[in-house]
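User: quick one, sequence for these tokens?
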């Protein structure tokens, strides 16, 4: 794998960044990804998590555990998973439901379960302050009160998130529309039958030792691990066989560092949703760029007997200093999709999907966040420090700037934001939906608008951070609390957690 150390990266950035980025490094692919000879392993679909309604609360139970998993047939690898050796079941609940998830930890070290993209109380968020010790069970309970969307859950232990996610602890969390709602009527017109025409596609890259064990050594690469093997739903070289005229792919970039640019060579896909739910109207795209943690839902139209390949094109990462070292030259196939000879009819994708929007004129607070090295606004993450205090019921505009010449992205807990501008210009169509994670090109300011509602707690913080997990683990993260008007942040609850 081509790699660039942090020291070497910063030296290049200081001495010859412009030269390197303009002298042809980006003209030839130096892809570190080794593609399988055949895409013939049936794509496994995660099971739906079982639940039970108790006293009006839909209760799920999942267990973090160690096991062995075959990424390739016949090659067994030590892994971690929720309710299995790798990955996790798809948790599914409807808007308006009260849910509880009881997470048991059968590992030999502490972990956590963060509900990425979920609007919920901070003490239920599953971040680094809600750790689950070995042998313990943690219960999170909250009301589903946001737009229908595709979220995911994964550990968030400070300093160890990369390793926990990389070993396999990750699953999807579907939020369905409330029965009888306008959103439900739209959903009926989209492919929506799980496993049949509504398919989860969880993408992650891995590196393996000669004995077939996972290797997490990043080779000193500034962005973290760029694996040479790409998996989908935990297998290499997958094939999906479809029986309907249209199929909906719920794409998740579950990698720790790699950015993908997904599409079908020679044709377009229809984007219908981003991180936080349906977009206003469908968007025809040749490629969908997803940095770690981002999701997108796309609909493919298929002809009987047709075969297409979901492909990751060379991602546009902006003016990064050494493109080949951060995956900007990598292009490879991801998933083969084969249509049966006879296909069931599918409805046309509606021309209008969702109605939403925050008014910038209603924003009362502006904040700026500059990411550099492993610091945000000049400070590394400190578990005992509250960095920002937000008043509940307010709309804010956050300007986020990547001051480095390497890739970063930005994830905010609790809220779904909208992108107002990128580099001073209107965002491209694929960034006009509701999002909780956004890629940051070097030097281009991204304006985000978000509203903080419902939950105020001066003691328990939410996080904002880079979702390149090595960056997050090494300190590129901050904390904010949401308080009632006139209230002050109170860090006494978390003071004992120390600086990790």
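Assistant:
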């Amino acid at each position: 794998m081509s790699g660039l150390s942090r020291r070497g990266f910063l030296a290049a950035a200081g001495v010859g960044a412009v030269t390197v980025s303009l002298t042809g490094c980006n003209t030839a692919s130096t892809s570190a990804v080794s593609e399988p000879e055949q895409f013939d392993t049936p794509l496994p679909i995660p099971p739906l998590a079982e639940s039970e309604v108790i006293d009006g609360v839909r209760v799920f139970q999942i267990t973090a555990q160690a096991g062995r998993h075959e990424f390739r047939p016949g090659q067994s690898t030590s892994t971690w998973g929720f309710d299995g050796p790798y990955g996790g079941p798809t948790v599914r609940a409807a808007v308006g439901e009260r849910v509880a998830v009881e997470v048991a930890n059968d590992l030999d070290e502490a972990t956590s379960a963060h509900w990425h993209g979920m609007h919920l109380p901070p003490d239920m968020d599953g971040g680094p302050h809600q750790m689950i010790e070995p042998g313990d069970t943690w219960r999170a309970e909250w009301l589903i009160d946001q737009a229908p969307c595709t979220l995911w859950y994964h550990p968030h232990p400070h300093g160890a998130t990369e390793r926990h996610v990389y070993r396999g602890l990750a699953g999807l969390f579907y939020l369905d529309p409330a029965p009888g709602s306008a959103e439900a009527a739209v959903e009926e017109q989209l492919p929506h039958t799980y496993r049949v025409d509504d398919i989860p596609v969880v993408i992650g890259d891995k590196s393996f030792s000669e004995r077939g064990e996972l290797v997490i050594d990043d080779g000193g690469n500034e962005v973290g691990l760029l694996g040479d093997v790409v998996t989908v739903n935990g297998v290499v070289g997958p094939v999906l066989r479809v029986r309907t005229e249209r199929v909906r792919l719920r794409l998740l970039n579950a990698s720790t560092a790699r950015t993908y640019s997904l599409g079908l060579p020679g044709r377009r896909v229809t984007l219908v949703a981003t991180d936080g739910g349906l977009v206003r109207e469908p968007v025809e795209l040749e490629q969908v760029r997803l940095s770690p943690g981002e999701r997108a839902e796309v609909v493919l139209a298929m002809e009987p007997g047709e075969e297409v390949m979901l492909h990751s094109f060379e991602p546009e990462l902006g003016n990064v200093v050494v493109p080949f070292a951060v995956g900007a030259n990598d292009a490879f196939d991801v998933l083969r999709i084969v249509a049966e000879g006879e296909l069931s009819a599918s409805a046309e994708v509606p021309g209008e999907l969702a109605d939403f929007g925050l008014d910038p004129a209603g924003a009362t607070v502006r904040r700026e966040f500059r990411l550099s090295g492993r610091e945000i606004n000049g400070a590394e993450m400190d578990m005992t420090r509250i960095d920002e205090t937000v008043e509940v019921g307010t709309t804010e505009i956050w300007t986020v700037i990547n001051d480095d010449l390497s890739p970063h992205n930005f994830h905010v807990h609790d809220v779904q934001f909208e992108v107002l501008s990128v580099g001073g210009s209107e965002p491209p169509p694929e960034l006009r939906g509701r999002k909780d994670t956004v890629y940051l090109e070097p030097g281009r300011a991204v304006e985000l608008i978000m509203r903080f509602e419902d939950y105020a707690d001066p003691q328990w913080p939410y996080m904002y951070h880079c979702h390149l997990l090595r960056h997050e683990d090494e300190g590129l993260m901050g904390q904010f609390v949401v308080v009632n008007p006139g209230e002050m942040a109170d860090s006494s609850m978390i003071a004992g957690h120390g600086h990790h």
